[in-house]
Amino acid sequence: MTAVPATPLLDNVTTPDDLRKLERAQLRQLADELRAEMISAVGQTGGHLGSGLGVVELTTAIHYVFDTPTDRLVWDVGHQAYPHKILTGRRDRIRTLRQPGGLSGFTKRSESEYDPFGTAHSSTSISAALGFAIANKLSGRPGKGIAVIGDGAMSAGMAYEAMNNAEAAGNRLIVILNDNDMSIAPPVGGLSSYLARLVSSGQFLGLRELAKRFARKLPRPLHNAARKTDEFARGMAMGGTLFEELGFYYVGPIDGHDLDALIPVLENVRDAAEGPCLIHVVTQKGKGYGPAEQSADKYHGVQKFNVVTGEQAKSASGPPSYQNVFGETLAKLAETDATICAITAAMPSGTGVDKFAKAHPDRAFDVGIAEQHAVTFAAGLAAEGMRPFCAIYSTFLQRAFDQVVHDVAIQNLPVRFAIDRAGLVGADGATHAGSFDVTYLATLPNFVVMAAADEAELVHMTYTAACHDSGPIAFRYPRGSGVGVDMPETPQLLEIGKGRIVREGSKVAILSLGTRLAEALKAADQLEAKGLSTTVADMRFAKPLDEDLIRKLAASHEVLVTIEEGSIGGLGAHVLTLASDEGLTDAGLKIRTMRLPDMFQDQNAPEKQYEEAGLNAPDIVDTVLKALRHNSAGVEEARA
Ligand SMILES: Cc1ncc(C[n+]2csc(CCOP(=O)(O)OP(=O)(O)O)c2C)c(N)n1
């Protein structure tokens, strides 16, 4: 007899209201369909896969039990929210994930009422959910705050700051700790070991033991429910002293793929908890998709892939990535310098620190998602004579700004900042763009701020930073591959605060900071073709500024254009300040600054984003022509 295929359920579930109409017994099938749909969609778009696969059952159970969107559900980081998007009215657009004009790869308020809070940087969910819970409590509106936070995200101080403050929310705050024993890399540190101990010691308590423990810790209705619900006993225990000390009822660990265990627990917490509750759910990253389950990183982030084989689209082989150039250069330098250390905040492979760690495991530190700690830890190392390199993405370093100012800059400590993902980053969109680091670092006394124009320059800057013991120094470089320049045999020590002339001309000077240099050179060719002789300088330093070079170019050119992959407040602002302080424009020099626009740019290919930002060669040509009041053929317009 052939089995009759089950009628698909997901096709009839557009929103959680539809989901809640299903029988509980149907949820297993729905979850399976949801998982298959997610795999199929991410196979086409690429993106975050493993985390979402791990929360398919949890997503189904939460929307089944809670009254979303009235109950405010906040997914920490938001990279695991693809199944949530499918169940909350966005299935029809799920194949536009991370594409231009498509769904965001994270949660986003403007996208859906089911996304009450935008996320992407980790460990914000408990604070935000607490805010929702208390606002609703104060205004007498229904609505709990539910935070779903991973064990990796739980390593950040902010999560504890929020929990420490949670009591005021009463039973309106629920934290679901999604423990898959993975961050992007394997999780690190004491908290991770603590959670592992809870999981290994807590499972499979008998019903009687469970009920006894519940009777002590949880309100009576929950206790009674526990007695009645057989499934409730399986895989569930009490423990979690740390969380209890912070004022939470700790429930768990629970098997997060077992809907029969999850649903009664969520219902009981919903109906009976008297204070903030933390439900510890154990899941498997990549669950239900063989290639993900078997891969070391559980397919945290993937390219488009073949769903049958799991094979990911290969990026064309080409120049090395900036992150690897950094990691390998630093590892090499550390062979002859025992003081060099490398620090990453949970991004060993993303930053290239994995390369360093392989060669020098004792001097590589993955501190977890803890950028603030990373910076002050580096400051301590530097104060004791070590040469620490803090390798942090531009966007994540924002979180540690006070540590950069107070612990590093004011004390003038030689912490080296390797700032990866500088500039626009593509599919991760506005939350991950590295737009502000030059602005927020080059404003600080004592700081040296460099930007690499290509991968060879990154080698020189890594070496220059290693040699710079007199204060803090930062160097920034973009996401992705280098431009294919010849790599130096030996690194060069750059003179601090000195740029270089890359091409000599006489009428127009383009001052470039970072990897727009290639566009500046293209623009110079086009200007030359219009009869406008063009100088191109790679400034290398936003701070200290190469003032002599600027004065010289200002005196010998008619137009001076600055260009950088950063917000207002960077190179352009510093050049304008010098020009105004010294009256460099008094004799008629025209200065124009080209920078990122005053807006948060959505996801797109980086080249497209730079096109939208107006920072490509044609934009440079345009800017110059406008400054000279030339039309596009290069002919001077008659003045009115
Ligand atoms: C402040 C900050 N630092 C780093 C990251 C990069 N990041 C994205 S997801 C992730 C790991 C999160 O681990 P976990 O919370 O356990 O979730 P999982 O991916 O395992 O589901 C990291 C480090 C980030 N989003 N925010």
Describe what is shown at a glance.
By secondary structure, this protein is of the alpha/beta class.
CATH topology of the largest domain: Rossmann fold
Count of alpha and pi helical runs = 27
CATH architecture designation of the largest domain: 3-Layer(aba) Sandwich
Low-confidence stretches: 203-237
CATH superfamily of the largest domain: Thiamin diphosphate (ThDP)-binding fold, Pyr/PP domains
Distance between the termini: 90 Å
Enzyme class: transferase
Pfam families: DXP_synthase_N (PF13292), Transket_pyr (PF02779), Transketolase_C (PF02780)
Keywords: Isoprene biosynthesis, Magnesium, Metal-binding, Thiamine biosynthesis, Thiamine pyrophosphate, Transferase
Family: Belongs to the transketolase family. DXPS subfamily.
Protein architecture, described:
The protein has 640 residues and is of the alpha/beta class. The chain has three domains: 10-298, Thiamin diphosphate (ThDP)-binding fold, Pyr/PP domains (Rossmann fold), CATH 3.40.50; 322-476, Rossmann fold, CATH 3.40.50; 500-627, Rossmann fold. The protein is 40% helix and 14% strand. It has 27 helices and 19 strands. The strands form four sheets. The chain has a seven-stranded mixed β-sheet, sandwiched between helices. Helix 9 packs antiparallel against helix 10 (220-228). The longest helix has 19 residues, at 27-45. The protein is globular, with a radius of gyration of 27 Å. Residues 51, 77, 79-80, 121-122, 150-153, 180, 182-184, 285, 300, 345-347, 369, 371, 396, 399 line the site of thiamine diphosphate (TPP).
